[in-house]
Amino acid sequence: MLIENVDILVIGAGPSGSVAASYLHKKGVNVKVVEKTKFPRIVVGESLIPRVMDHFAEADLFSSLDQLGFQKKPGARFIRGNDICIFDFSNKFSEGWDWTWQIPRADFDLAIANEMIKKGVDLEFESEVTHIEFQGTESITTVIDKNKQEKKIRAKFLIDASGYGRVLPRLLKLDAASKLSPHSAIFSHIKDVRRPNGIEGTQISFDILETKVWLWVIPFSNENTSVGIVGPTNFIEALSTNNSAKEALEKAISLSDFYINRFGNLPFEFAPIKLSNYSISVSKMFGDGYVLTGNSTEFLDPVFSSGVCFATESGMLAAKLAIKQINGQEVNWQKEYSDYMNKGIDVFTTYIQEWYTGNLQELFFHQPENPDVKRKICSVLAGYVWDDENPFVKKHDKVIRNMAHLIKMEKDNK
């Protein structure tokens, strides 16, 4: 049986695996990437946040992506009836990028893959991992390729960036329950033939239909717009009578006073995709000879577009630490990786939980606005969730709840 030998094997060619592999290749590491699917393929995660731009730049992917003309995203808008809250990434507390992209992931991920291949990264599509045997910190991975041929890949270290495929969590039984309540989503793309001119036509928006239910609208530069509904699973399931994702998404659009005229009665570009009870976690992020990155570790909730940010943050960090390990340097994976990633995950988890309690929405829509508070929240929404200089990061577990309580007391006293 054919056995390949590499320094580092990366499972998955999405943003996490691509950033990791591109960085490793840049540093002269013998890296191989295996991807189960064939690109392009449709996945969720079409709205990025500024922190990811740091990772694309460091992995030498930014320039090639910037040439493709993806829709620029300078901020985000939240709508609640007649109330509007707009966050501008150029007006935030933390230093960092003040814009990012809104992307059809099928095109975006394919563009990254093509750039990696162009740079010389060994990327193999339609190759499914069926078994992994660890021998200390080395591993032997069994793969079936697109020609149904079985082969083995020996690696000094393994990065699992398989996303929803969750290769190692499945093989090693690492799945764990999420801290978040069960939510589901349905989305598709629509040819945006009624798109308004100017910023209104290109602005990403979140339309709150109920406290725990919201519609996303993500316009792309290719004249399509991604439209999705998110809410508690029982609410999403009740949107259709026969478990039809198409009927449910059509009903969700009809509930939006803001967007019914723009998207009502327009056909979907592909059959709407349903993601049921999407939040998930793992019991541990690393072990002897491997590390989990991106959605292989934790998927939270799409409300603040944190998924790709955590994917690229973890992919880049995993690559840097893996280089140290294969070079014989000591790596404290708990402190340098797991604790670090969990710190950011904990911040975003708090914001997601407080969004669904309604507390964060109180801060978003409170009038008059507090510019200082808004700048600090904006930094979190931009992905700078490791900045302890920001009290809305450092005290995330208390500050939102306490401020929302004060706002409600103020309302009650009027």
Structure summary, number of beta strands: 19
Write down the Rg.
21 Å
Secondary structure category = alpha/beta
| CATH-derived architecture of the largest domain | 3-Layer(bba) Sandwich
Number of domains: 3
Sketch the major β-sheet: 8 strands, mixed
- CATH top level label of the largest domain: Alpha Beta
Unreliable sequence segments: none
Mean pLDDT: 94
Distance between the amino and carboxyl termini = 77 Å
DSSP strand (E) fraction?
Answer: 15-25%
Can you offer a commentary on this structure?
The chain has 414 residues and is of the alpha/beta class. It has 3 domains: 3-71 and 102-177 and 279-343, FAD/NAD(P)-binding domain; 183-276, D-Amino Acid Oxidase, Chain A, domain 2 (2-Layer Sandwich); 359-413. 37% of the residues lie in helices and 25% in strands. It has helices spanning 15-26, 51-58, 62-66, 105-119, 167-171, 199-202, 233-237, 245-254, 260-263, 307-326, 333-357, 359-365, 371-381, 391-394, 396-412, and strands at residues 3-11, 31-34, 71-73, 75-80, 83-88, 100-102, 122-124, 128-135, 138-144, 150-160, 175-176, 183-191, 205-210, 213-219, 224-232, 273-275, 281-282, 286-287, 290-292. Strands 1, 2, 7, 8, 9, 10, 18 and 19 form an 8-stranded mixed β-sheet that branches. Strands 5-4-13-14-15-12-16 form a 7-stranded mixed β-sheet, with helices on both faces. Strands 3-6 form a two-stranded antiparallel ribbon. Strand 14 and strand 15 (224-232) form a beta hairpin. Helix 1 (15-26) runs parallel beside helix 10 (307-326), helix 2 (51-58) packs parallel to helix 10 (307-326) and helix 12 (359-365) packs across helix 15 (396-412). The chain is globular and about 75 Å long. The N and C termini lie far apart (77 Å). The mean pLDDT is 94.
